[in-house]
Amino acid sequence: MDYNGLIIVFMCLARCIVTYMLCLSHRHVATVVSGTELARQIHKEVQSDIAKLVAQGSRRPHLSVILVGDDHASHTYVRNKTRTASLLGMSSSTIFRPSSVSQEEMLELIDKFNRDRSISGLLVQLPLPEHINERAICNAVAPEKDVDGFHIVNIGKLCLDQRCMVPATAAAVWEIIRRTGIETVGKNVLVVGRSKNVGMPIAMLLHSDRNHERPGGDATVIMAHRCTPLPRLKELASLADIVIAAAGVPHLITADMVKEGAAVIDVGINRMQDPVTGKHRLVGDVDFEAVKVKAGFITPVPGGVGPMTIAMVMKNTVTAAKNAPTY
Amino acid sequence: MDYNGLIIVFMCLARCIVTYMLCLSHRHVATVVSGTELARQIHKEVQSDIAKLVAQGSRRPHLSVILVGDDHASHTYVRNKTRTASLLGMSSSTIFRPSSVSQEEMLELIDKFNRDRSISGLLVQLPLPEHINERAICNAVAPEKDVDGFHIVNIGKLCLDQRCMVPATAAAVWEIIRRTGIETVGKNVLVVGRSKNVGMPIAMLLHSDRNHERPGGDATVIMAHRCTPLPRLKELASLADIVIAAAGVPHLITADMVKEGAAVIDVGINRMQDPVTGKHRLVGDVDFEAVKVKAGFITPVPGGVGPMTIAMVMKNTVTAAKNAPTY
């Protein structure tokens, strides 16, 4: 090869490299935020808190769960919670009741557990059978043992920016944002879904004042839900620096909706059957593969908000144990 | 004048008329929603409710107000409330305390009034002196007599879409929207201001489900506040079908922000001194004259949300009287 040929080959090579790098810079891929990894951090903190409590002579934290009926998903969730509790050095117990249980029996059981000083945290796995008033059950749990944060006084405190038991899924989203270093002050946050256990408390945490007793995110928060027409949802999503999908609609959030570089947090857990294999798998509310290429941060399903939610139940239980009277 | 001349004059005239009509159709002016007028409607309903209660042999509703210190605006507000109560056939009493009053004395007073069956509704005029914990005072008022809707259980119920005492200003905004026939389902509502007594409860009412125990507006709600940068506020306002200004910033909402035909509800009451005359006057958070030309509906200040807020305190007091035990 002569000198000119060498130059041509070299230039072609250089061009290829430049094109490839340009491609790379455009083929932006989001940081996938591992909830499993973040949950591990929280587990370590909880373990250390438990060790301190026990070293101080306090009782080892104990989580009691009341589980009604045979719902498969509920049984899985409860097992995950008690298994994690045991891994972190917390004791736990699950009380099973058939779906025929009366509301009266439930209230008696809760009352007994409220008065039992060996129990730090108490949760009643939802949903409950139709003949039981869920609100009455949530309000029966002593607010200071209410590790789900569903008691009306805990909801009131949450909405008034007071220190309280924050519902675990909302707390999980908050911790993911905080620990990933995603900025919220003055940013636009779109919360899709307005459930009282997830969407509403997330909106409360993120819009409120960072200088209040329970610090908030100081973000501009958009509360969207099933009544928001799709074109309007798209329009609002395109303005959002953070999208929190908690609607329970598989793949509701698509790539065309999301702003380049946005943080996308997927709270959805939808059980879908593969039309070909017939197997069930969990999918989120976000079209993960497509959105990943456009977003700045994204949480996967499974392995995102799920493990963090369990970690926050553990954290709430230790908080309850810390606040318990020592007499 | 010959025939041709007549035709020219006629055509000129016709052109003038068409131009004027076109002008008129573009010089759109909003419907000014009179809060005073709507409040009169509510007064009539309250009067009729009181008459029914008394006819049934129930006690005449009674509103008790505790007023601390010498704040001029607070004294005016309280006088407006007790005067309206008396006009509607309700009895009322105002208990004055100096700003040196102790929290303990306040709590004792509230406790006494809570137990007094002749009192239907009880409110403590805010703000209170710094040495008194407002939250402790609000939570001391019996929830069923809490006509301001500030007790934590009433806030919790509001946020859970349960029937409750709705804070009067939020209830006033709700009634203005409802009675004016402004559609909310699937609409974009921008709430500017996130105070716990006004902005937050308005957002709660408007975003929630119309089929719940306490029906909501089913709107997509944007919660903006002092941390929302002005360009972002403008961007979001331009998408809003309803703008609710509750920031306490004079003339924050300008005509360039508002979408043509939007409903603009002004909750702001700002006391401003005229730089020329030196006189004080009340102005809202909305640049009324300029926005009026662009909006579809607009509430004035004064004469908008203000009189409706007082009407809603009256309505809450009658509700409290209706729900009071009859033993």
Automatic annotation (TrEMBL), chains A, B:
Enzyme kind, highest EC tier: hydrolase
**Assigned keywords, A-Z:** Hydrolase, Multifunctional enzyme, One-carbon metabolism, Oxidoreductase
- Report the catalytic activity: (6R)-5,10-methenyltetrahydrofolate + H2O = (6R)-10-formyltetrahydrofolate + H(+)
Q: Which PROSITE patterns match?
A: THF_DHG_CYH_2
Enumerate the Pfam families for this protein.
THF_DHG_CYH, THF_DHG_CYH_C
> Cellular component per GO?
mitochondrion
Task: Please list the residue ranges annotated as the Tetrahydrofolate dehydrogenase/cyclohydrolase catalytic domain.
Answer: 34-148
Oxidoreductase as UniProt keyword: yes
Q: Known Gene3D superfamilies for this protein?
A: Leucine Dehydrogenase, chain A, domain 1 (3.40.50.10860), NAD(P)-binding Rossmann-like Domain (3.40.50.720)
Biological processes, Gene Ontology terms: tetrahydrofolate interconversion
Tetrahydrofolate dehydrogenase/cyclohydrolase NAD(P)-binding domain sequence ranges: 167-323
EC number(s) on file: 3.5.4.9
**Molecular function (Gene Ontology), one example:** methylenetetrahydrofolate dehydrogenase (NADP+) activity
Q: Which InterPro entries match?
A: Aminoacid_DH-like_N_sf, NAD(P)-bd_dom_sf, THF_DH/CycHdrlase, THF_DH/CycHdrlase_cat_dom, THF_DH/CycHdrlase_CS, THF_DH/CycHdrlase_NAD-bd_dom
Q: How does it assemble?
A: Homodimer.
Q: List the PANTHER family.
A: BIFUNCTIONAL METHYLENETETRAHYDROFOLATE DEHYDROGENASE_CYCLOHYDROLASE 2, MITOCHONDRIAL, C-1-TETRAHYDROFOLATE SYNTHASE, CYTOPLASMIC-RELATED
* Protein name, entry field: methenyltetrahydrofolate cyclohydrolase
Q: In which organism is this protein found?
A: Cyprinus carpio (Common carp)
